[in-house]
Amino acid sequence: xLHGMCRHRHANENRVTPTTPAKARCLVEILRRQxxxxxxxxxxxxxxxxxxxxxxxxxxxxxMALQPxxxxxQPPAEWFKIYRATQQVPDVAPSNGQPWQFxxxxxxxxxxxxEQHADGTADDDQLLLAGEYFHHAEYAAEAYRFDTPDDxxxxxxxxxxxxxxxLSLREIGPKLWNMLDYYLASFPGEFYVWAAWRPFHPEHxxxxxxxxxxxxxxxxRSTRFDESWRTPDTIAIASTMYETRDFSSAPIxxxxxxxxxCDNTDILTHCRTERRHCRGCWVVDLLLGRS
Length: 291
Known about the structure:
α6 (about 125-145) packs antiparallel against α7 (about 155-165) and α10 packs antiparallel against α11 (about 250-260). The protein has helices at about 20-35, 35-50, 60-65, 75-85, 105-120, 125-145, 155-165, 180-185, 205-215, 230-245, 250-260, 265-270, 280-290, and strands at about 70-75, 105, 190-195, 195-200. The protein is globular, with a radius of gyration of 21 Å. The chain has two domains: about 5-215, no CATH class; about 225-290, no CATH class. The protein is built from 13 helices and four strands. A two-stranded antiparallel sheet has the order 1-2. The chain is mainly α.
């Protein structure tokens, strides 16, 4: 069992060591060299959307929508930039004399901004606003710990666990790569709740590692891809699945790829196997020219 902060998925203490089983250590080190920042951000968001989190079996995406802090009124990015630079609350109106425009933001918006940022369709201001939302969520959840009746403590611990998990996405930096070590080599089976720990849902790691496989593919196989397989039909199906996050047409994509001459077993099997896919799926990315 791991101890202390190393149970957080981005902590450096999760890194594989010489004592890590050789197979896991080799897998992690190869994936760390191959994976891109975009893939890791989309993987984080896929785990939020689909991996059952706590004993209730709901993923974080569903759990956050049940929280009292899910929706908040948030100032624009410029307000936060001034506050960060001065550590003082900005004036009621900015220098142009117009009042600050506050908008309603919720946790789903914040996660979607991360996904859009990964694909280059959200600007740095939206990434900043997502980070500030995650900070607000943790701050609001922390406030509920005081004067909590004993019969509500279990529910509120889950509430804080959700917020604490999201808070780690406030800064998307080099430590993001540590999530590979966390899930593939040092998974502790518990998430953080108010200076304590609670068990994940039994299927959390299995779903997360399945999404890692969906996103990154087999690290030791170099998939041969023929440009002739990138037809208007295959691109249309892949694009629709990517935009809608509905991958139920993956078996149809396999058939259309075969019609285009694709004979790659890895690609066809990945599309036809009954499994969870997410944005960043390696087959869809191949077709759309994404990495």
